[in-house]
Amino acid sequence: MRTQAAFAPPFNTDALPPRDELRARLGLRVDLRTTPPGTVSFEALPDHRLKVHAGAPVRGACRTTQFVYTRGDIDIFPAGQSDVWEEETENTSLVVRLAPALLRRAAEDMGLNPDRAGLEPRHHFRDARIEHIAWALESDREDGHPGGLLYTESLGLALAFHLLGRYPAQDTSVRGLSASQLKRVTEYIEEHLDQNLSLVRLAGVAGVSESHFRALFKRSTGLPVHEYVIQRRVERARTLLLRGELPASQVALEAGFSHQSHMARCMRRVLGVTPTSLVRGARAR
User: Fold this and answer.
1) Judgement on whether residues 151 and 246 belong to the same structural domain of the protein
2) Residue among 35, 36, 53, 46 at smallest CA distance from 10
3) I need a labelling partner for 164 at 20 to 30 A (CA). Which of 49, 51, 54, 134 fits?
């Protein structure tokens, strides 16, 4: 009679050592598990799980499919998925668990809908990036976490980014900035047009990473950040020139251009007219 081994019981932070408890609260947990020969059952849990084979080769079968696990072979079990298979000999695997909150956090930075951030089920495959992060997490755990929480968190996020980028659930959808994010950014741009705006600062206003801000902003407005800012500066310059209260050199600075010639070039490109012809045409009406 074969022994049934259930993988990865639900999180119980009360039963964890203090350091592991803190990491579990980050949404990440790493366990090295050994199962005896026989039926291996993977229970449905609310967490996403990776199983990386860490021991000697093991023969197994699932329904009508036979396979051989070798070191580094990977399975992805999305949240809520269960599975069962047979193995001929003892099996040692590294099980990495990622809470949905960790994937949501990564999805927000990637411009994915966090409410649909999930993984596709995938079995018996190789991925050098996943292996690298998984072994780093296991080494850190085995050594007593010398890198601290920041190191663990950075590895967990790197893993989540990679998984969502390579193995997203089919219904994961790309989005732009939320309405509130876009409102904050555009209002900030309007209030600081006369200053030296930076991607780092605008990404901070939106609350996303700089690496994803460019794509999110373009999806929301249809324009690259730089082009949007230029168009808003041209519009402000046009308004100030038509008022006729300031010389063109001062208008350029008020609108955020480095000098009058820069303003003229941008106005010609965006509006098709120079500052001089714009003012002359207004006076002739």
Assistant:
1) no
2) 46
3) 54
CA atoms of 76 and 5, how far apart (whole Å): 18
Task: Indicate the pairing of strand 91-98 with strand 28-35.
Answer: antiparallel
With a CB cutoff of 8 Å and minimum separation 6, the contacts of 18 are none
Phi-psi region of 118 (alpha: psi -120 to 50; beta: other; left: phi over 0): beta
pLDDT at 4: 36
Distance CA 24, CA 268 (A): 57
pLDDT in tens, 67-118: 999 999 999 999 998 889 999 999 999 999 999 999 999 988 887 778 788 9
Question: Which one is predicted more confidently, 171 or 66?
Answer: 66
- The one-character DSSP state at 2 is P
What residues does 6 pair with on adjacent strands?
A: 41
Beta bridge partners of 3: 38
Tell me the average pLDDT across 21-46. Answer: 84
Q: Which residues pair with 29 in a beta bridge?
A: 97
With b for 16 or more beta-carbon neighbours within 10 A and e for fewer, the 221-240 pattern comes to beeebeebbbbbbbebbbeb
> Do the Cβ atoms of 7 and 42 come closer than 8 Å?
yes
User: Quick check: helix, strand or coil at residue 229?
Assistant: helix
CATH for 142: 2.60.120.10
- Tokens 């999805």 map to which residue? 107
- CATH at 232: 1.10.10.60
Taking every pair of Cα atoms in the chain, the longest distance, rounded to a whole number of angstroms, is 99
Domain that holds residue 52: 3-166
Structure tokens at 61: 């079968």
What confidence tens digit (pLDDT) does each residue in 150-194 have?
888 899 999 999 999 999 987 545 578 888 999 999 999 999 999
- Inter-helix orientation angle 148-166/18-25, to 10°: 40
